[in-house]
């Protein structure tokens, strides 16, 4: 099959590379010329486990191409995926300008039957609008007779495990108003769902809403656990015991129950906000989604509050080591990362930051550009903690967990750790004479 992917970001690049890996011929399109030039010469714009290998392999085998020219990308394609960004506007609604621009371009370029598949996360009704825009463009060209299929196929991959998630999905959701179109898209996914058979065909609006409901449900679990963790810090109890205590209940399950420094990334925050906005537009207050968002905003300041309680509000002359800047481990994505709030707060209070992240330093430098030399970036976690007054752990990169505590003791100026991801055992830390503050394990009494 020949497939065109428009929007070559986290989702588009993974989708394109994985479909090529399944034997299809894929052309990924993007407006970002630098990104396309880099990809053409083998340089990936993002870090994702396993992605570089399959991009390399399929490029060499001539199944994966990159271009800025939509017409070229769409040439002879049977399927065209839209995977451009849908970032949040000020009022929480999704900015659909790129999606509609792509729809117009598709309408201008389409020359034979094509199935257009909306993969970006966009509010209910967007796929129908895309259909209308394409029809309008065909009319302008005097080609109203040209038929095309339309579907919503939301993506559920997680950054950090994107290739695995795409290749071994729990389910594939296809929303279509035409069963034949849905069946053709299902065929595309057969190599990866043949064993599970978990392809869910539904109407377009249900598919669009499934994506928002899924992300909001996962965000709800995180905010709920963060709130229980804060209660633990007030009344005693250990959020890790509680997590296991409830997670072993088969009705609840164990995933997405970790208390921490708050959720971030390009999906949960914006999708929860868009759900609230869609409710508001339709005279329905989304009470749960609103609470999830509020709890998360507060949670990003929880570590900052601990630090202020310990050090006071004047951090001039203090050196803080920060481990982890990306919004979660195994990604270099800084979008809505809790580190943006935490580092900003510490710098504003006067602290000097020495930061280490295994993959996100380049993105972080861009995100924290305004702070100049108040933030220093180093190449190893041990370099960061040298003569530090405290260590602040924001992202749960696995290597942080296995650090040599004796080395930490030797190198740090003061043995103080603020752990936003509950990476260490409080008892072990106490034995090693560390002042150890973490989330919901009664190490921090408010
Ligand atoms: N990142 C994730 O983990 C994830 C997971 C599931 C769903 N999604 C959804 O998928 C969509 C894409 O997310 P992403 O993280 O890949 O975004 P991204 O910002 O990484 O990538 C979007 C790409 O689209 C390109 N683009 C913008 N306008 C364009 C145009 N007119 N023509 C061609 N290319 C254009 C941009 O240059 C960029 O490279 C969003 O709706 C997001 O909510 C993301």
Description:
- There is one protein chain.
- The protein is of the alpha/beta class and 446 residues long.
- The chain folds into two domains: 2-201, 3-Layer(aba) Sandwich (Rossmann fold), CATH 3.40.50.720; 203-446, 3-Layer(aba) Sandwich (Rossmann fold), CATH 3.40.50.
- 45% of the residues lie in helices and 14% in strands.
- It has 19 helices and 14 strands.
- Strands 3-2-1-4-5-6-7-8 form an eight-stranded mixed beta sheet, sandwiched between helices.
- Bound molecules: nicotinamide-adenine-dinucleotide.
- Residues 6-12, 29-32, 35, 83-86, 98, 101-102, 120-121, 155, 157, 159, 266-267 line the site of nicotinamide-adenine-dinucleotide.
Order of adjacent strands in the largest pleated sheet: 3-2-1-4-5-6-7-8
Bound compounds, please? Answer: nicotinamide-adenine-dinucleotide
Query: How many E-type strands?
Result: 14
Known CATH architecture of the largest domain: 3-Layer(aba) Sandwich
CATH superfamily of the largest domain: NAD(P)-binding Rossmann-like Domain
Taking all Cα atoms into account, the compactness measure Rg is: 24 Å
Stretches with pLDDT under 50, minimum 5 residues = none
Q: Summarize the amount of helix as a percent range.
A: 40-55%
Q: Estimate nothing, just give the exact number of structural domains.
A: 2
Query: Class of the largest domain, according to the CATH hierarchy?
Result: Alpha Beta
Main beta-sheet annotation: 8 strands, mixed
Silhouette: globular
First and last CA, distance: 60 Å
Mean pLDDT: 96
